[in-house]
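Notes from the 1:1 (GR / supervisor)

We went over the backlog. Supervisor wanted to see one worked example end to end before approving the batch request, so GR pasted a single chain during the call. The sequence is below; no edits were made to it. Supervisor asked that the structure be written out right there so they could see what the output format looks like.
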Amino acid sequence: MRRLLPNKRSNKWLYVPPLLSLGITALFAVMARLILNYDSFNYPGLLIFNLLVGSIIALAGWLGAKLMFWCTTGGLVIGLILMFSIWTENTGWENLVGGLAMASLLGVGFLLGLVAELGAWFYRRRKQGQ
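Structure output shown during the call:
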């Protein structure tokens, strides 16, 4: 079975931030333009923000924290789904609430990944001590 993620401290992790940011920006473009009928959107700003988020996620993977990579990416995907579901309402506050929901779930995914990595580290350390 092939490995989906590169090895720890591999230069292949340099490809993850641009691919992740382009994928998220493309998802935003499809949702905003085709489904939600938004005429204008700040795509360059969104691309820079997604590049920053992708760099943080890839840095965790480059350092060997693959559980953190998967949990943070999962939090990002769930946050995007929740944000897009909130954006379909027309009350006037959905843009702000949707962005806050996405950022909150991204943070929860990051913290969950950190706890999972710490738990795995303690488990490996305890296993080596026996």
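Supervisor's comment: The chain has a mean pLDDT of 88.
Batch request approved.
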